[in-house]
Design a protein that fits this description.
Strand 4 and strand 5 form a beta hairpin. The protein has a twelve-stranded antiparallel beta sheet with strand order 1-2-4-5-6-3-9-12-11-10-8-7, with helices on one face. The longest helix is centred in the first third of the chain and has 13 residues, at about 35-45. It is of the alpha+beta class and about 290 residues long. The protein has six helices and twelve strands. Helix 2 (about 35-45) packs antiparallel against helix 6. The radius of gyration is 19 Å and the shape is globular. The protein folds into two domains: about 1-110, Roll (Thiol Ester Dehydrase, Chain A); about 120-288, Hotdog Thioesterase (Thiol Ester Dehydrase, Chain A, Roll).
């Protein structure tokens, strides 16, 4: 497992090009989509005046990426306006383009404020971690709980039963997941690093929410799933090395696709980001 700071360490190879070394365990490892988004956002931000902060990103996953392969990020300056800056990033590996990301940055300013969404969850101290949450499961579900925390540089605690447990029992569940996250390692006092860490975390478990009503899960026999596109709106700074809450739900699925929506709150209840993701979810024949 690679830490957030190491993941975001990009080598500048040109005025608007960057390179990241591979990370992961074996050549067969598939890179996590949130990692590619975080790195692409960092590349974009390194071509922007540091007084401008990211307020949104939109990404399309085009091909699977290998975790151990080096990655090149080609940043295209789209616009540098009086208040807003836009960058497009083409993220490539040896087999082609794996991600296209557009990010927008703005000069911080005062303005009208309101927030409708509220944080309503038990504290992280009162929420089970992966070992406790998966203790009653067996087989593939138990194995998932034992390994998920090792796949990401985040601690995870669950504010309600994960739908994966219901799927393991052959039951459907409401399409909602509620979890606390926190970076495992302390992070520097750099808002950009924390924004990139939040971008990484925004992809954790999101697509699996769409499968909850169908009594199945990602990785189950007969299920094929992959993220197609992902968008994040950043509403304010947050420290990703302190507990933050992620409330995920899926309002729709049809036609081989599912939609996920998420709201991220800091511990004080301030809405710090909104996320939307669409993914491919398909039934496929199970080979005997």
């Amino acid at each position: 497992m690679t830490g957030i700071e190491e993941l975001l360490r990009l080598e500048r190879t040109g005025e608007t090009t960057f390179r990241a070394a591979g990370h992961g365990r074996t050549g067969a490892d598939r890179a996590f989509g949130g990692a590619a988004i975080a790195q692409s956002l960092m590349a974009a931000a390194r071509t922007v005046d540091p007084d401008r902060v990211v307020h949104s990103l939109h990404a399309y996953f085009l091909r699977g990426a290998e975790a151990t392969a080096p990655t090149t990020f080609r940043v295209e300056p789209i616009r540098d306006g009086g208040s807003y800056t836009t960058r497009s990033v083409t993220t490539e590996q040896g087999h082609g383009v794996v991600l296209r990301l557009t990010a927008s940055f703005s000069v911080p300013e005062d303005g009208m404020e309101h927030q409708v969404a509220e944080l309503d969850a038990p504290s992280p101290e009162d929420s089970p971690g992966t070992a406790e949450a998966g203790a009653a499961a067996d087989g593939a579900v138990r194995n998932w709980f034992e390994t998920v925390s090792r796949r990401h540089p985040f601690e995870i605690r669950f504010a309600s039963e994960l739908p994966r447990l219901a799927a393991g029992r052959g039951e459907s569940a409401p399409p909602r997941q509620r979890l606390w996250l926190r970076a495992r390692d302390p992070l520097p006092d750099d808002d950009l690093v924390h924004a990139c860490a939040l971008a990484y975390a925004s992809d954790i478990l999101m697509l699996s929410t769409t499968l909850a009503p169908h009594a199945t899960m990602i990785g189950a026999p007969g299920v094929s799933a992959a993220s197609l596109d992902h968008a994040v709106w950043f509403h304010g700074p947050v420290r990703a090395d302190r507990w933050f809450f992620y409330d995920q739900e899926s309002p729709w699925a049809a036609g081989g696709r599912g939609l996920g929506q998420g709201r991220l709150f800091d511990r004080a209840g301030r809405l710090v980001a909104t996320v939307v993701q669409e993914g491919m979810i398909r039934r496929r024949p199970v080979r005997s």
